[in-house]
């Protein structure tokens, strides 16, 4: 029909799909608890988020954000240093907000998942054992107590939108929870270590770089199986396996 917007499949796999129709994103999720968290987290977050247009389970309709994503994993970021610093400042504002009233991941769960995914990577021959072992050692830096803050939980650069070096919004809040502040900073800079200094400047306080490096290793190790099972390739240039190899 003339004048109708085309449907763009943003992401799709067995559990979730996101479609774009004009200026509207339609998120379809078989697990409504994730959508519940997303809607509640966006309402609580003190930083820009997409407008909820309507919700009719299993579909959540969100308005598109202005601007462009900060970047993509495996590709050079088109954003300026000022935009990266603005992202750091937005993360700090989130971390300074009151905690969301639902639980986050326990330290024991984080350690157990690390052990299990390292064993899976080695047993399936996806990475040399020495790469897994070395990154397992680096990831041990995250296994310590922390003061929980309000974290996004999946702060990939593709989830942060900027325009004229200002943050216009952050999307995909289904992993939001109380957690380790440095996890958000690590996920934001994963594969883009050259912008870590910009993010830290915007964040405005001292951070433990060894822990951020530990979270880079942890995230890359534990994400591989889920990525592969959902049709993504962590071995692409600049992606998770390259992050792990860079630690050698």
Compact overview of the structure:
With 248 residues, the protein is α+β, with helices and mostly antiparallel strands. 40% of the residues lie in helices and 18% in strands.
Structural overview:
By secondary structure, the chain is an alpha+beta fold. It has one domain: Aminoglycoside 3'-phosphotransferase, Chain: A, domain 2. 40% of the residues lie in helices and 18% in strands. The chain is built from eight helices and ten strands. The strands form three sheets. Strands 1-2-3-5-4 form a five-stranded antiparallel β-sheet. Strands 6-8-9 form a three-stranded antiparallel β-sheet, covered by helices on one side. It has a two-stranded antiparallel sheet with strand order 7-10. Strand 1 and strand 2 form a beta hairpin. Helix 2 packs across helix 6 and helix 5 crosses helix 7. The longest helix has 21 residues. It is globular and about 55 Å long. The relative contact order is 0.17.
Task: Give me the secondary-structure topology.
Layout: E1 7-12, E2 16-21, E3 24-29, H1 32-44, E4 52-56, E5 59-63, E6 68-69, H2 81-95, H3 107-123, H4 129-139, E7 149-151, E8 160-163, E9 166-170, E10 177-179, H5 181-189, H6 196-203, H7 209-229, H8 240-245
Antiparallel strand pairs: 1-2, 2-3, 3-5, 4-5, 6-8, 7-10, 8-9
Helix pairs in contact: 2-6, 3-4, 3-7, 4-7, 5-7
């Amino acid at each position: 029909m003339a004048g109708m917007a085309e449907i763009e499949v943003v992401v799709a796999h067995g559990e979730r799909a996101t479609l774009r129709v004009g200026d509207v994103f339609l998120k379809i999720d078989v697990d409504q608890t994730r959508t519940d968290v997303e809607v509640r987290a966006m309402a609580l977050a003190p930083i820009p988020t997409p407008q909820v247009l309507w919700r009719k389970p299993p579909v959540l309709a969100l308005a598109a954000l202005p601007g462009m994503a900060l970047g993509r994993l495996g590709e050079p970021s088109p954003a300026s240093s000022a935009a990266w610093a603005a992202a750091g400042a937005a993360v700090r504002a989130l971390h300074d907000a009151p905690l969301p009233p639902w639980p986050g991941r326990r330290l024991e769960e984080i350690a157990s998942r690390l052990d299990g995914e390292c064993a899976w990577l080695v047993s399936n021959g996806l990475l040399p054992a020495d790469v897994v072992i070395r990154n397992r050692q680096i990831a041990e830096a995250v296994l310590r107590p922390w003061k929980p803050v309000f974290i996004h939980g999946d702060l990939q650069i593709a989830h942060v939108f900027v325009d004229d070096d200002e943050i216009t919004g952050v999307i995909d809040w289904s992993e939001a929870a109380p957690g380790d502040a440095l996890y958000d900073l690590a996920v934001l800079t994963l594969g883009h270590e050259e912008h870590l200094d910009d993010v830290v400047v915007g964040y405005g306080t001292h951070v433990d770089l060894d822990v951020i490096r530990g979270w880079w290793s942890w995230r890359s190790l534990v994400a591989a199986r889920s990525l592969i099972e959902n049709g993504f390739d962590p071995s692409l240039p600049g992606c998770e396996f390259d992050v792990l190899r860079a630690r050698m």
